[in-house]
Every structure is written in C-alpha cells, then in structure tokens.
Amino acid sequence: xxxxxxxxxxxxxxxxxxxxxxxxxxxxxxxxxxxxxxxxxxxxxxxxxxxxxxxxxxxxxxxxxxxxxxxxxxxxxxxxxxxxxxxxxxxxxxxxxxxxxxxxxxxxxxxxxxxxxxxxxxxxxxxxxxxxxxxxxxxxxxxxxxxxxxxxxxxxxxxxxxxxxxxxxxxxxxxxxxxxxxxxxxxxxxxxxxxxxxxxxxxxxxxxxxxxxxxxxxxxxxxxxxxxxxxxxxxxxxxxxxxxxxxxxxxxxxxxxxxxxxxxxxxxxxxxxxxxxxxxxxxxxxxxxxxxxxxxxxxxxxxxxxxxxxxxxxxxxxxxxxxxxxxxxxxxxxxxxxxxxxxxxxxxxxxxxxxxxxxxxxxxxxxxxxxxxxxxxxxxxxxxxxxxxxxxxxxxxxxxxxxxxxxxxxxxxxxxxxxxxxxxxxxxxxxxxxxxxxxxxxxxxxxxxxxxxxxxxxxxxxxxxxxxxxxxxxxxxx
Length: 478
Prior knowledge:
There is one protein chain. Helix content is 25%, strand content 16%. The chain has one domain (18-474): Double-stranded beta-helix. The protein is of the alpha+beta class. The protein starts with 20 loop residues before the first helix and ends in a 17-residue tail after the last helix. Pfam families: TauD (PF02668). GO terms for molecular function: oxidoreductase activity. This is TauD/TfdA-like domain-containing protein.
C-alpha cells in the first residue's frame, strides 16, 4: 500500500503499456488504409453476427425487468455481524488494502449469496444491488475496507483509475464542499448521457450518501435488448457501431488518438472461425517479449473459462445451483460519447478526426433507445451496485445538495473497476489497448487506496495526480 503524495511520472511516457505498441500502430493505420470512411447501407447485420439474440435474462426492458427482489441482496443482521467480524480481522492483522479478498474477508453466510449474484452479473441480468451497510457507524477507512471485502466476491482484480495508481475514485460535488466549481463529471452535479465507464468489466459503486435534496438517480439499459431492436429496425447502425474507425481522444498523450469499434460480437465458444484462430496463433502485433498476448497475462486473462450458467430468477437461496443455459454469443459495448466528441473539460483537439454525420446519428439513436428501454434506480445510503459494464449502459440524472445541510449528508460515492478472472468475458482484441492501460502493469506504479477524498482532491488540483488511466481521463461519472 502506497502512502506517498509525490506526483507520478510514468517511465514510459505514452498512453499505453509498451508491449501494446504494435496494436496501437495498427489502430492508427485505419486512416491510411481507408481513404474515405465507409457508408453502411446494408439491410442486414454484419456477416457472422446474429440476426437476433435468443431469449435470455440479459435481454430486458421496463416491462420485462424483474419486479421481485431477485437482483437485490438485503444484508441481514447475522450477515452484518459477519462483515464486522471480517473487518476486525483486517484491522487486527493489519492486512493491507491490496490483500483484502475473499480469503481474508471471509463471509460464510453472505459470501455464497454474493457469489450467486456475481454469476448473475456476468451471465444474467447484468446488475445487482447490495443494501444494508450502516455507513455512519464506520470510519472512512473502515468503509473502504468493507467495500474492498464485499466487492472481492464480484472481482478480485482491481483496475487503476488514475496514472498515480489509484484504485478508488470518490465522486462528489466539489462546489458544495467549499471548492471552486469543477467541470469534471466526477466533481459536478450535472446529468450524464448513457455510456459505459470506459475500461472495466464490472463497475462497482458504493453509496456513502445519496443527494441531500433530490436527484442523482441512475438509469440502466440492456445492450442486448438494444441490439435486437437495431438488428430488426436499423441494421445499418450496427455496421456503423462495429466499424473500426471511431477516433478516441487520448487527452494530450502520444499518440493523440486511436481508433476502434464501439460494438463487438463474440461468437459462442468453438465458433470463432478458423480465420480468427489463425490470426491469434500468429500473435502479430499483440505479444510481449515473453510471448504472452497481453500485458501481465496472469492478471488480464483474455480468454477466461467460459461459463454458460445463469442465476435462477426466482431463487434467493444461498445453496441454489445455477441452471445451465444454451451457449450464445455475446454483444459487448464500450463507449463514452465525451471521449468521441469532446467536452468542456476536454475540448476536442483539431488534429483528431471529427465524427462523421453517420457516427453522430448512430450515437443519437443509441441514446434514444437507451432512454426508451431503461429502468431507473437511486442508490440509498449504504448500498452497492455491481454492473456488467460490457452489457449494460447507464446514465446519471442531475442532483442537488442543500448547502444548509452538513456535507456529510451530501452525495458521496466510491467507484471501483473490477475483473473476475474466472468469469470475465473474453476481451475483444480491439480493447486490449484500453484494458492493458487499466488492468496491465506499469513499471514504478504502486497501488493507491484513497481514503481521505478531500485531501486527495486538493492534491489533484495542485497537479499531483492525473485522471487518465480509466478512459476519458477517468472522467466518466456515476
């Protein structure tokens, strides 16, 4: 655990780990190989993509989303005692933050329920809420330890969200805490459009306090539901979203942008095709010097064990076994409109290609469909949300904190990026650059666990930290 406040200066000054330099070069060749970005007038989905995803729990809308509590865990009194006992072990043995995991934070009764919920997040609804932590009874340090302990049941690999190695990000309205107004979505109370947090498999949020006055709700939309709609009504938009020519800003780093698709399809296991297998065997532009396909391959496993299980929708029993479901392909999304079009915090540099009218129209339609098919939820004090960040898009409504109410009751969330190496979906090759930047290794970068959010914020404003690791400068907010 690092306690240094010194600014981080990367040994490799570019935006990505050195071993992915070949992929980056290949990405930038898109604009040399395609003189004019293609139009997509097709009336069918791309070759090899499904004309419709078969029914599954991943496909839902407001009418079909479960009305029961199968996606919610309410922590019971005995389970809270388990959490307190695990917390005491962490404190008594001085276990560092980086070593808090399922083994060191043992939850004999609650743990199996969290394991089942983790299965559902990966292969079911894609979303789970855990409620009932009395945050006011714990110190800031204890709340961080509880978050690390509970979240480890969903993923023990934690992504860095800043160049200085920070694994935790606090989200709050800077202005109501006595700081100058801040345009970053992390530190203001503005509404946010639908997006994925750019670089994580599982998004974890822990609510220390909801907004003191109103607002701050989040809406969630199933990407699989949206895909089926597009496949039936607007297949040309799928071509646009799946094209490799979307220019992503790297915010002042070298290179200034890279290109990749927004939408991906991974076929069922065993149906990837010989052409893709041959390409992977060649390892062209994709390996480190030791022959691994990705940085820190033991951590970033691109092809984890494929599970075909789903969490029974009507069962809340900790002893229930997941039911098998047919093998199906998966649609994955990874997009942040601000990283593609610019924002007040990060205006779009003139040297980065602008979005085409077709790309702009695709984003507009995607936002509209997210609004149409989404469900809305507001986190309460002491609640978690665990979100499949590849299959569910989310937004944030504006929120308001009364300046007359103590800041301890203002909106305050902690964010983590998680990856479960046993259950994680296969990472598309086009995302290796981004995933390597968050889940890979950077020499000389220690893990940082931010507990004092206001001190950390002041350090940021003095230029001692930099939001770049997590996509859009880590600027996506919840």
